[in-house]
Amino acid sequence: MGKFKRVLVLEVECAKDKNKETPGGKYRRDTPWLVEAFKKKGVESDILFITNKDTADSLVSQYPDTAFLGRVNPMDYPGVISLNEYIDGVLTGLNKKGVLLGPIPEHMDRLGSKMILYELRDTTMGVEGVKLHALADMIKNDGEMEQILPKGGPPRVLKMMRGSTGLGVWKVENNGDNVILTDAYDQSTEEIPRNQVLTKFCKLCQEDAISMPFLPMIKDGEFRFLLSKDKILEIVHKRPVDASAFTATLRSGAVYTILDLEKNRAMVNSVEQWAQDIKKILKLDDIPYWWSVDCIEAEGCTDKQIPSSTPGRHLVLSEINCSCLGLVADTSEEAKKKGMRFADMIADICLG
Known about the structure:
CATH topology of the largest domain: D-amino Acid Aminotransferase, Chain A, domain 1
Shape: globular
Number of domains: 3
Number of strands: 16
CATH architecture of the largest domain: 2-Layer Sandwich
Helix content: 25-40%
């Protein structure tokens, strides 16, 4: 059982991510699975709704010999608990006391931000040509657009630092004196003058952003690697709804296919090694108990690149998710079994 007699899984009662199949319809879909998995390991476990009255000190005092696992989607819950109160008042303090199983605030901050694409641009899965754009420079709109999208240059993708399901991700491409924008969130397209692009984008993101070359092989799909620490538990191939789409989310109609790990062993081994390597590169003590790495293919493959399952292609990093990633995406009976299996493996790793 290790040093803990109990594991409490943290949720927020008013969150909108509840599943009707959970007891009373009160919890995230995967939270009861995690509770059951911890119980199998021989420790007491339950779900605890937190508010802004809870702090690391109060939780440790009220629940001795207890470890905590956060399953709170990181955002503000007005009148209940803010994002800062959750991260600074609860997670950071629990981590310093050595009783937090995850998520580690530093992981949420660094790995969960699009800034990670800039930080890892020179690794074996980095994308050459990623640029960082300060909000102040974008607001000035004085030459910054020429860095993001030079006139006559190839398409690029502009990304705000945080967002999910394509929110704040735009494909930008030249069309004479104008720019065609494609929004990854809803796949809408519009044409606007070049000098209006950054003004429009800043109103949406209100923070620094990154831009990167558009990866045309998104039309062939995206690979999502689901990991616990540095072990890949599943690979999902996400194929866009059609060749014109530049995102592969369920929201956009993408088709998801589970790939066989053993048939893709070379790719699996390379990504797992990369997951270990980034601990050193980013100077992290650990990597998340549950996270995903999204990749898109690019042509060619040298010994310094990560091979794709498609011969003659390599993988480049598209996104990392680690803040409160669900264990499974669909609602089938098979997904329930898979979710429970993932929960068992997470409990093993967390209490190991």
